[in-house]
Predict the 3D structure of the following.
Amino acid sequence: MQTEGRASIRVKTFAESVSDPLLRSALDMDGGEEARHKVVLSKLVEAYGIPLSPEPDYPPPDDPEWGWLVTGYSECIDSFFAFGLFAMARRSGYFPAELVETFEPVIQEEGRHILFFVNWAAWYRRNLPWWRRPLFAFKVARVWAFLIWERIGIARGIDADGVAQDANFTMNGSEALGDSLSPGAMIDLCLAENERRMAGYDERLLRPDTVPRLARLARRFVK
Ligand SMILES: [Fe+2]
Ligand SMILES: [Fe+2]
């Protein structure tokens, strides 16, 4: 829920900085979907009577573009694993069909978000004057460094503020669901699901490829 809350404010803040009406409306839709995801999750938690720690504030980022880039690239990482994990959850038969149906469009919307994001990034880079491109590339590199650092913290069970959290979604989620699925099979499933979820869109659009490429590389070292 916190991830969706933060994504929503970051996308909305960036949308406000954009003057092109078509791009602005696409961003507003994206931010609106994140806000809705948070509501859907809150209803799930409520229905199962799961107590949550109180929600933090979601302050708008000081640099709207930084917030948008962090959200975009972190969704590229998280959605890739969520695709596989969701397929695993569906196959396990552990969850009621209605619950799977409720979250199916949420997962596909995340797929659309990363598709939109990588195409926005390519378009934005292309339209920057040449002398601003190195600075943008440096900013993107800083975003990746931040995301890797953040995920090391998550893997150790500590969030960005140094608070212990149970947010290691991919690891704990897959352990809870499929002790029969090896890491290699899990990567294969993520790759196949990524392919399937990205298949239906206009062929001229770029596909998010950084995380799938890294996964294919990692796969070579996993038995
Ligand atoms: Fe979302
Ligand atoms: Fe999203």
